[in-house]
Amino acid sequence: METLKPKFNDQGLIPAIVQDADTKDVLMLAWMNAEALSLTLETGQVTFWSRSRNELWRKGATSGNTLELVEMRLDCDEDAILVLAHPAGPTCHTGATSCFFRPLTIETLTE
Fold it and tell me: How many Cβ atoms are within 10 Å of 92's Cβ, its own excluded?
């Protein structure tokens, strides 16, 4: 089996893209540090690092909208993680299924 070593940035973080394991919809982007990555693999509950609160954040800990880990993949450059998960409810804090629900077009783009 190949040994993988995620490349964390200078803040000790790596982007984690979350995808619904069944529908393949992209649900969200968040950040993981080494501890969040380990906790996710150990517990099966997707955990991130909150950059705004400077603390570990288990997705759904307060809302109940958890993400159950199915599989994790590291990209070819080892600097981004794909998390395949089963969501227990809406993933976005707005109540939307995905955080990517707003179309971005030339008309909607503001500077």
Answer: 14
pTM, two decimal places: 0.92
Contact 22, 86 (CB under 8 A): yes
**Closest among 77, 95, 79 to 16, alpha carbons compared:** 79
Residue 15, classed as helix, strand or coil, is: strand
17-87: CATH number: 3.10.20.810
Residue type, 3: T
60 alpha carbon, distance to own chain's centre: 12
Which pLDDT tens digit goes with each residue over 1-48?
889 999 999 999 999 999 999 999 999 999 999 999 999 999 999 999
